[in-house]
Design goal:
Layout: H1 2-25, E1 28-34, H2 53-60, E2 63-65, E3 68-69, H3 75-84, H4 88-91, H5 100-103, H6 110-116, E4 120-125, E5 142-144, E6 171-174, H7 182-194, E7 202-208, E8 215-218, H8 219-222, H9 245-251, H10 269-275, H11 279-305, E9 313-319, E10 324-325, E11 331-332, H12 338-341, E12 342-343, E13 345-348, E14 357-359, E15 363-364, H13 368-376, H14 390-394, E16 404-407, E17 413-417, E18 420-424, E19 430-434, H15 452-459
Parallel strand pairs: 1-7, 1-9, 2-14, 3-15, 4-5, 4-7, 6-8
Antiparallel strand pairs: 2-13, 3-12, 9-13, 10-11, 16-17, 17-18, 18-19
Length: about 475
Amino acid sequence: MRNHLFLILIFLFTTSCLSENSVKKSPNILFVAIDDLNDWVGYLGGHPQARTPNIDRLVKKGIGFSKAYTVAPLCNPSRVAILTGLYPSKSGVYGNRDKFRKKLPTELTVMQYFKSNGYKTIGGGKIFHGNNKPGDSLSWDEYFVSKDNTSKSGRDKTLPKVSTGLGWFNWGPIDVEDDKMQDVKTVNWLKSELKKDHEKPFFLACGFFRPHLPWYVPKKYFDRYPLEEIILPETLVNDTDDLPEYGKKFAKERYSGSLGIDLNEGIEDHELVLQYNQWQKGVQAYLASISFVDDYVGLIIDALENSNYAKNTIVMLWGDHGWHLGEKQHWRKQALWEDTTRVPFIISYPSKIPNNQICDKPVSLIDIFPTLIDLAGIPKLEGLDGQSLMPLLKNPKIDWNRPVLSTYGKGNHAVRLGNWRYIQYRDGTSELYDHQKDPHEWYNLSNKDGFEEIVKFLKKTIPSSEK
């Protein structure tokens, strides 16, 4: 009996050790989110003056997706979709005021799922909507909050204020050292985490707040882009003339309500920017904010390379949605065109996936959850709306004809596939653009003869029912 008990104990001990060793061999996850970063990134070529050497350096260590698209062009619904793997039409989360735990009380986030599979989940900065806050207690083992930069809005309340005279549009150089910036505090915290000896594999998330408004960064970043040399986005004066009424309202949308839309009439953002002579200054401030973030992405890459985790860490960098700076006479996100939906998306995993590759197949950020599961080798999770990108990570050149869906407010959707973008609004009106001939989306083809079949095909991706 005693020998039998001894054999059982030996078996349990051996099994425990094997389990522990297998957990230790699991890859770590470094999850880097950047708020309001559009395609003004070097490898994406969205603006001729955009310089992002460090984001581009990450591409050289992995695969950069040149046609990656947000699930929703607004912070909260975008992040909820990425972190739960569910489309807004399934979750009911359409606006910044929607509380996802009220709508999805039992749904697992990607962090929860990795935690249940032996990972330690650690976060800092903006991951869920709500800057500098955990956002969901079930998701994190630990969360870094920069307490001296915490206010009701979550913004950098200790920074000096610069006013453009445009209300919500505030930007300009500020006279502070980098270490006063909340994003820098978050990066310094992350660097300290990479120096620790972690017993479990980690899911380490770092969320940048810039280039979200207000575009306040130290003056040295503005100096990289002299105002007199600023190149404005290419625009067409009568660009909105061929849009349906809903599209025209989106072009001058100013604030987001509980459903992500608020179509109040009034003076358009673009008119205000022109009236106060702020267009060049706005572009300069956005470029400066991007450079600020890129410098600190570089420090993250350096810290990982100099750590004990460099060879066994998956790095995933993504922007939550795009941003307009005058294209289609629109500012902000909150629309369904290319500039509001196209984002940087990069995956690196040393020796496991190809390096220095660009994948030009349209993909969605809804695919992040299932892709991380496959990369980490943990059990698959049923019920996710996304599809693993592992086939593209193995060979970025394979055929890939899966349409990409983006949603802004209930009933408003865009479908991106190949050269086409189709937009359908809640009232049934639509837009269609051929990116091969019209990369700026200046000419709406939806009501033109000869495009009925492609419209019919793209409409199949739009959800037939919505929560």
